[in-house]
Structures are given as C-alpha cells and as structure tokens.
Design a protein that fits this description.
Elements (H helix, E strand, L loop, with lengths): L1 E3 L1 E6 L2 E2 L16 E3 L15 E6 L1 H4 L17 E3 L1 E5 L5 E5 L5 E2 L4 E5 L3 E5 L18 E2 L10 E3 L5 E7 L3 E4 L5 E17 L6 E7 L2 E2 L2 E2 L10 E5 L6 E3 L6 E9 L10 E8 L5 E5 L2 H17 E2 L1 E2 L12 H14 L3 H14 L27 H13 L2 H22 L30 H22 L3 H22 L11 H9 L7 H16 L11 H10 L3 H9 L7 H5 L35 H9 L1 E3 L6 E4 L9 E8 L2 E10 L2 E8 L4 E4 L8 E3 L2 E7 L3 H7 L2
Parallel strand pairs: 4-13, 11-20, 28-32
Antiparallel strand pairs: 1-6, 2-3, 2-5, 7-8, 9-12, 10-11, 14-23, 15-16, 16-21, 16-22, 16-23, 17-20, 17-22, 18-19, 24-29, 25-26, 27-28, 29-30, 30-31, 31-34, 32-33
Helix pairs in contact: 3-5, 3-14, 4-5, 4-6, 5-6, 6-7, 7-8, 7-9, 9-10, 9-11, 11-12
The chain binds beta-D-glucopyranose (BGC).
C-alpha cells in the first residue's frame, strides 16, 4: 500500500495498521515507500471492502517558508493498493487499485501539514469501507501513470502515536480564551472527546509559548496550525486529526460545547517509532532537564524526516542541523533504519555541480549551492551511524554519495586547497545580527575549511575500512595539503586563529588542525582565555557548539567546560532551562529574561542543533563512548568536574547494554562499569595515566589517589 499523498487504509470498516501519515516523506520522485500489512485475520468469506482516506500531505501540499510551494511533486493524489489473498489450497487472488475504484470528497474538508485540518463529522458516511456500501453516487477514478521502479520498502520504523499527554492546566487567557497547557513542548496533535449539538465547530490552535498569557502564533510565521472539528451531534464523539501535526505546548480551544475538562482532551505525541538506546543522568537537576530537552527536541524532529523544527512553515530536512546532531541522535535512539532511508534520498537528490541540497527531501531546487557542514551531512551522518552501529554496509551503500560530495569542495578548493565558497558557517552565533545568522564572529571560510579538513580525514578512514586503498591514499594526501593550507591561511605562526573566536579555536583544536607543539599549546591557551573572557557565556553557533566543550577538555581545561555547561545566565545551555524550556531552542535567547521574544525571524523553540552538547555529556561527563565502531571496544573515560558529584550513561550497543556511572562519595571516587558480552572496555580511572582493559561483566573501580583532587572540585 502506498500513496501520492498521505493515506489511512481501512478493511471491512476497520483501520489497518497503526501508522501515522503513511507513507511518510521521501524524495518521492526517486523513492516512494510502501507498507505491507498482514490482514489475514480481517478477511471474511464473501464480500470484503477496502477503503482509503487520502490527503495532500507533503506530496501536494504547501512546503517551504516565504510562501513556500504547492504541488512540489505533482498535482494529482493517488493510491496504489494491492491485496493478495492466498487460499488454503495455495491459489493467489490479487485485488489491486485500478480504474474500477471510486472516490469522493470525504469529511476532512481541508488538510495541510503546516495549516492543520478541518473535519466535518456530519459528512461521515457510515459503512463507507464495509461490504454492501452503495458507492454508486461516487466518482470514477483516473489511472495515473507512475514509474514503479521508484517503489521501495521502508527501512526505518513508521511514524506512530508514541505517547499521550494529559493537560496540566486549563485556564482563561487575559482576553478570555481557553488555553490548555500540556506542560511539555511536544509534536503531534490533540485528541478530543466531545459531546454537543450537530454543527458545533470546535477550533484548536497550537503554539509553543505564550506571550502575555495569550497564544504566541507569530513564530509559526505562515503556518496556520489550526484544526477544526464540526460535531455530528447525537452522543460522545472522539476525534484526532489524521494528516497533520503541530509543534506545541499550549492549545487554544474555542467553541467547546459546555465546559472543557482535562478528561476531554489529550495531546498525542507522534514520531518515528525508533527504539530508545541511550540515557544520561547526573547530580545536577538543571543538566538533567537540559538532557530531557535534547531528547524531546529529537522526538519532535524525527517525524520520518530529521527536521530543523516541527512547528513553523519549515519542518524541513535541513542537512546541517543533522550533520551536527547525528552523533547525539545515534546515542539516544536507534536511528540506523530511518537515516538509511534519509541518506538514500540525499544520494538520489545530490547533484554533481550543486552538491547536496540544503534540505532533504529537496524543497528548494532554486536555492542550492555547495556548502560546508550542510553538504557534509553526506559524510558526517553515515559516519555517525556507523560509529554507533558498526554497520559497514551503510558506508558501502553511501560511499558513492560521500565521494561525489567531497570531490566538489576538492574541485572548488583547487590547487590552493582552500575552499572559498559561500558558507552558512557558525550559523546562529549569538553575535550575528538577527537578520543574518551566518554573519557571526568566525570567518565563514575558516569554518568551511575546518570542516573540509575534518571530512577529508573521515573519508580517508572510511576508504580504509571499505578497502578502497587508492581513495584512502588520495583523501589522506589531500587532507594533509588542506590542513597545511588551513594553517597557512588561518593560524598565526605563534598560535592564534585569525578569527579571535571560541569557535575558530575550538574547531582547530578538535579537528586536529594544529600540530602538537608550542603553537598548538598557544591555540589552546587562547581558547581558554576567550572562554574566561566571555565569563563562561556561550559565544558559539551550529559549528562551534558541538566542539567547544570537547576542545576545552582537550586543552586540559575541564573546569572551564563545566563552567560553560553549568552557566545559567544568558547566553548558556541552562538559561533556557531556567526559563522553563522543555525542548532545545533554536536561539540561545529565543525568550529574553523579561519573557519577550527574540526579534529574529527564526525563533523556534524546538530545534535540536544546539543540543549537540549531549554527545559530550555521554562521552565525557559520564564517560561512555565507542573506541571502535559499534562499541566492539568501548572507552570509559569520565572527566569529572566542578558542580557534579555523579553522572551515569547507559547505551544499548549492538552487543547489549553498556553502562558507566561515577559518584563522589565523601572522600571516594567510585566508578562502575557494565561491559556487554563479547566486547571489551578501556577504562581510564580519573588521575591514572594508563587505561585498564577489561572484558565483559560488571566492575567497580575506586580511587584513593585521586580522591582529594576530585573531591576538591566538587561543590
Ligand atoms: C533552519 C535552520 C537551517 C538554516 C540554514 C533555518 O531556517 O531552521 O535550522 O539549518 O535555516 O539556512
């Protein structure tokens, strides 16, 4: 079963499957995914009936900001269904969608991903998908031609209803509107249970935040995010929109017949049904909330396609956002199936000259040029999945795409080995003007070339893993030349970056762009100085944020990394937490301390990119990381620092559960480690110069030697 559009299928009057918004969103022109369902138990002797509800979804609805575009993939909706009945004697009967089917307009009178859904229950036709229904008044269908070689099976989990959230409060806004608060910024839609006279229309509007007690819809830009349900009357009715989703914590409900109570409405959280694989907790409640916010930001933005945000007129597969967040994502959830599909779309849409689209699936064929980090998703994302899953096949499948991408900056860089193209750079560096988030403190080409060097190193490593020896050598050589060019262009002989920013210094340290020695030490010292000068407030955007804490640790300034993490004043990771955030914000100061909005056009309250710090929480604060792809060998290297007295991370590796926990108890530092079967771990007990290598099992390490030093750092 699949559709041009989004569908829900019924057999003999009952919905088949629990998929939401099937067949999801892919680069439909190249890859249209189908679902298979076992419906044996639903079939009955004699007549059976198949019925499909169909809506525009991503296929024909409006997509993109600035007005966006409709009919991106086509102007006709369609259904492709095939029911195969295997009789006891083995004979197969196939019933397939064809020109004999009939169609009519249904009770859903309006439906859009951004704008929401209208449903008039008075237009429901009882028994419409059951045998015996009289469809003579319905229209004939047209048969649409479609290249069937584009049909593919899905590799990842479908979108499902994952959780139901009850209101925490229902109240009146200053202007007298009814506002329901779910206590959590989430993605999905409302489910209603309502009773009232026929023809009553209940209107549901959604938003992530309130301003002056009223629903704040301006940050949704041109997304209406409004659902309307018109009652059929005559008893209790339940309804949930089928073909839309919203990003919201608050809903404004108008037109409710009678008194609205908490039992009448629920939020239904929808996202790709990935298995949860990673957990983190520590002694600091603010950091725990930050981590929960990262998890919720991921849940909100993994609705079939990894998106930038789930609420405004965007919700697009921005490649750069995922390039920086992929390591975190791959720790928290099993992303392998979902990202395999997304990467297949990326490869299908990639272009020799323009590179990787800025968004996949590509909704902006007119705005498209090669760009670091964003285009680098072609390499960074399969690499992150491989690091956590150990799956070499994904790398093999993506290898042509990875090569095609890197060859483009290589060509652009030419004999100088410097890529001087346009960049989005350290996107959303808080110093950038609101209307130009790419114009931060760090030279955009510096950011681009740092990533270029890093990606060349990854390419050389991947080529080695795949046995592509010529390529391994090629990328290693070009990598060396690119690093030399980077040093020449951006690092002073004594050891400063030409952009005197934390991002520039952190990238140079973290990506190994300055060789060991006095020059490197000065770069490290400069980073520490910049971080202290900024009073341990954040100065980084998309490029600097994933590396800043690691770079500080590499520089031996673990305490400064902790000071940055635990900062609560704006701008910081914990500032949104102090403002009641329940997801990661797009901007460090999306809401100002006085509760007013940041003035910029882009102000999402559910954006995972800046949550990439969670990767460091897992690897370095708790101390659990893969030493080899797939965690066949694990590195346990916690870096305790001031402000935390314990931390713990768990990850379901392909071999089983791995766990690391440490605590400072009076004068003891205690570390416990669970190593899964058939793996081993190098355990670096803080303070010791050498790791201990241990096999599978549970172990506890206590250090006495290090106690004073560690205890001294705790609050
Ligand atoms: C998106 C970002 C994205 C950026 C790049 C924004 O509108 O929300 O997350 O990466 O554009 O231009």
């Amino acid at each position: 079963m699949t559709a041009l559009g989004v569908y829900e299928v019924e057999l003999n009057g009952q919905v088949v499957g629990d998929q939401v918004l099937a067949p999801g969103w892919s680069s439909y022109e190249h890859r249209l995914r189908y679902e298979t369902f076992d419906v044996s138990a639903r079939l009955r002797p004699g007549a059976n009936a198949l019925g499909v509800r169909l809506a525009e979804g991503w296929y024909r609805g409006r997509l993109g900001f600035g007005g966006g575009r409709r009919e991106l993939y086509g102007d006709r909706l369609g259904v492709l269904a095939q029911l195969e009945v295997v009789a006891a004697d083995g004979t197969v009967t196939t019933v397939a969608s064809d020109g004999s089917w009939r169609a009519t307009a249904g009770p859903t009178t309006r439906s859009g991903i951004y704008d929401g859904e209208d449903h008039d229950a008075r237009l429901e036709r009882a028994g419409w998908s059951s045998p015996g229904f009289d469809d003579r008044g319905w229209d004939p269908v047209a048969v649409v031609e479609r290249d069937r070689s584009t049909l593919v099976a899905r590799t990842g989990p479908p979108v499902r209803r994952i959780e139901r959230v009850a209101p925490v409060s229902i109240g009146a806004s200053p202007s007298g509107r009814t506002i329901v608060d779910f206590g959590q910024n989430l993605v999905g839609r409302l489910s209603l249970s309502v009773e009232g006279p026929a023809g009553t229309t209940v209107t549901l509007r959604h938003a992530e935040i309130l301003q002056d007690g009223e629903l704040c819809t301006e940050i949704l830009r041109a997304a209406e995010a409004t659902d309307r349900y018109t009652l059929a009357g005559g008893g209790r009715e339940t309804w949930e929109p089928r073909f839309t989703f919203h990003g919201f914590r608050y809903a404004e409900i108008d037109g409710w017949p009678g008194e609205l109570t908490a039992a009448d409405v629920e939020a239904v959280v929808c996202h790709s049904d990935m298995a949860r694989t990673g957990w983190f907790e520590c002694s600091h409640e603010g950091v725990n909330q930050l981590h929960r916010n990262v998890v919720w930001a991921m849940r909100g933005n993994f609705l079939d396609v990894p998106t930038d945000c789930p609420q405004r007129d965007e919700r697009l597969g921005w490649t750069g956002d995922l390039a920086v967040f992929a390591p975190t994502a791959a720790f928290l959830y099993d992303t392998a199936g979902l990202l395999r599909s997304w990467l297949a779309d990326l490869a299908a849409e990639q272009d020799e000259e323009q590179g990787v689209p800025l968004v996949v699936p590509n909704t902006m064929p007119d705005v498209w040029f090669p760009i670091a980090i964003w285009g680098d998703a072609a390499i960074a994302v399969p690499w992150a999945v491989h690091r956590s899953s150990g799956d070499l096949d994904l790398l093999r499948t993506q290898w042509p795409s990875m090569r095609r991408w890197i060859e483009l900056p290589i060509r652009w860089a030419g004999a100088d080995h410097l890529w001087m193209g346009r960049q989005l750079a350290d996107w959303l560096d808080p110093a950038a003007p609101p209307e130009n988030p790419a114009a931060g403190r760090t030279d955009p080409t510096l950011v681009g070339n740092a990533w270029f060097c890093r990606m060349l190193a990854v390419m050389a490593e991947v080529a080695g893993l795949l046995g592509e020896t010529a390529d391994a050598e090629r990328y290693a050589t070009i990598g060396q030349e690119a690093r030399a060019a980077f040093l020449d262009e951006y690092v002073t002989p004594r050891g400063r970056l030409v952009s005197d920013s934390e991002t520039a210094h952190a990238l140079a340290i973290r990506f190994g762009l300055v060789p060991e020695g006095a020059r490197r030490v000065r770069v490290e010292q400069r980073l520490v100085r910049l971080v202290r000068k900024a009073g341990h407030h954040i100065t980084t955007g998309f490029a600097g944020t994933p590396v800043i804490t690691d770079a500080l640790c590499d520089a031996g300034a673990v305490d400064d990394a902790y000071a940055l993490l635990l900062q609560e004043e704006p701008l910081s990771w914990l500032y949104p937490v102090t403002m009641g955030a329940t997801t990661v914000w797009e901007r460090w100061d999306g809401l100002r301390p006085d509760g007013t909005l940041h003035g910029g056009e882009m102000n999402s309250f559910n954006h995972y990119a800046l949550g990439s710090v969670a990767d460091w929480l897992h690897r370095s604060v708790a101390g659990l990381a893969p030493a080899e792809p797939g965690y066949r060998r694990i590195v346990v290297r916690p870096l305790p620092g001031p402000g935390l007295t314990s931390a713990r991370a768990r990850h379901d590796t392909p071999y089983g559960r791995a766990e690391v926990g440490w605590r400072i108890d009076a004068d003891r530092f205690e570390l416990d480690v669970v190593v899964p079967p058939n793996t081993e771990a190098e355990v670096w007990v803080p303070g010791s110069a050498e790791p201990v290598v241990v096999g599978s099992g549970t172990r506890t390490f206590t250090t006495a030697a290090n106690v004073d030093q560690v205890a001294e750092r705790s609050p």
